[in-house]
UniProtKB/TrEMBL annotation:
The keyword Acyltransferase does not apply. It comes from Amycolatopsis plumensis. CDD domains: DeoC (cd00959). This is Deoxyribose-phosphate aldolase. Its EC number is 4.1.2.4.
C-alpha cells in the first residue's frame, strides 16, 4: 500500500459545528440536516476498494499492521481467569516461534475480568479494554451503566467499549443518547471511550451516519460498528460511512478520532480490504492502532497463518497457531 492522497469527498456535514449540541432542537436539526447517504454509491465504492490488488511486500506490511490493530476479545458467559491469562499471553506473543510478530493492540473482556487481564499484561504495552454499560443490549438504567463503567476503570481498564441506547436513538431521542455518552465519557476518566453503535440494528445508512456524528459530538474517542452479538455486524459500506465521519470531523475540528469494526471479520483477505478502505476514505494517518482497530478473535489466527506463509514461502496449516 503506497502513500496517496485520500480520495474522500468534501466533508459530508453541514457547517459549522458550533452550537450543534446547545439543546435538543439544535442537535436534532444538525443530525437531520446531515446529507443522505447514497446507498448505491457507498456500496459500489466499498466493493471497488475490496478488489484492490496488494503486492507481496505491501501484503506483509498489511498483515503486521492488522495484527497490531487487533483487540483480542473474549466475551462469553463461560469466560474464566485462566482463559483470560491465556489470551493475554497470546496477545503479547501471538506467534511464540516468530519473535518479530507484532503484539496486538488490546485484550477486551468483561469488567469483572479486567483486574486479571491487567495483571497478566503488566508492562507489555498491550492495553486492557472492557465492555460496559450493560453490554451487549444496554437495557438497564443509566446508574447501572455508569457503575459498570466505573468498575472497569477502577480495575485498571485503559479503554471502555460502551453500547448506545439504540431504542432511544431509533425513537429520535438524540439528546438522551448524547447525554448518556457524555456521562459515560466522564466516568471513564483517563480511559479512552469506544462508542458501539450496533449498526445492524440501526436499519439505514443515514442512521449510521447520524449515530456516528452523535457519538463524535458527545466525545467518543472511537466509534465502533457492533458488539459482535448481532448480525449483520461490521460491513465495508458501514465502515466506509464511519471512516468518512471521522475524516470530516478532523477536517472541521482538527481532532483525530478512531474507528473499530467488530464482528464477522475472520480472514486476512477481509482485514486487508478494511485497511485499503482506511487508507482511501479516512487517510494514511489512520493506519495506526491509535485510530483503527479490529474487534476480533478468530481473525488473529488467520493473520498469523498468512504471515507464516509470507515469511516461510509455504502454508503452515492451523496446527502451527493456537486456536481460541
Amino acid at each position: 500500500m503506497t502513500a496517496t492522497t485520500s480520495t474522500s469527498a468534501a466533508p459530508a456535514t453541514p457547517a459549522p459545528l458550533v452550537d450543534a449540541t446547545r439543546d435538543d432542537a439544535s442537535l436534532r436539526r444538525f443530525l437531520l440536516g446531515l446529507p443522505g447517504v447514497d446507498q448505491v454509491g457507498v456500496e459500489q465504492r466499498a466493493a471497488g476498494l475490496g478488489t484492490r490488488s496488494i503486492k507481496k511486500d505491501a501484503k506483509r506490511w498489511a498483515i503486521d499492521t492488522a495484527i497490531s490493530m487487533v483487540d483480542l476479545t473474549t466475551l462469553e458467559g463461560a469466560d474464566t481467569q485462566g482463559k483470560v491469562r491465556a489470551l493475554a499471553a497470546k496477545a503479547v506473543r501471538p506467534d511464540p516461534e516468530r519473535q518479530d510478530t507484532p503484539r496486538v493492540a488490546a485484550v477486551c473482556v468483561y469488567p469483572d475480568l479486567v483486574a486479571t487481564a491487567v495483571e497478566a499484561l503488566k508492562g507489555s504495552g498491550v492495553h486492557v479494554a472492557s465492555v460496559a454499560t450493560g453490554f451487549p443490549a444496554g437495557r438497564t438504567s443509566r446508574e447501572i451503566k455508569l457503575a459498570d463503567t466505573k468498575i472497569a476503570v477502577e480495575a485498571g481498564a485503559h479503554e471502555v467499549d460502551m453500547v448506545i441506547d439504540r431504542g432511544a436513538f431509533l425513537e429520535g431521542r438524540y439528546m438522551d443518547v448524547f447525554e448518556e455518552i457524555q456521562a459515560v465519557k466522564a466516568a471513564c476518566g483517563d480511559a479512552h471511550l469506544k462508542v458501539i453503535l450496533e449498526t445492524g440494528e440501526l436499519a439505514t445508512y443515514d442512521n449510521v451516519r447520524r449515530a456516528s456524528w452523535l457519538a463524535l459530538l458527545a466525545g467518543g474517542d472511537f466509534i465502533k460498528t457492533s458488539t459482535g452479538k448481532v448480525s449483520p455486524a461490521a460491513t465495508l459500506p458501514v465502515t466506509h460511512i464511519m471512516l468518512q465521519a471521522v475524516h470530516d470531523w478532523h477536517v472541521q475540528t482538527g481532532e483525530l478520532r478512531g474507528v473499530k469494526p467488530a464482528g464477522g471479520i475472520r480472514t486476512t483477505k477481509d482485514a486487508i480490504k478494511y485497511l485499503v478502505a482506511v487508507h482511501e476514505v479516512a487517510g494514511e494517518q489512520w493506519l495506526t492502532p491509535d485510530l483503527f482497530r479490529f474487534g476480533a478473535s478468530s481473525l488473529l489466527n488467520d493473520l498469523l497463518l498468512q504471515r507464516r506463509t509470507q515469511v516461510d514461502g509455504h502454508y503452515s496449516g492451523p496446527d502451527y497457531v493456537t486456536v481460541d
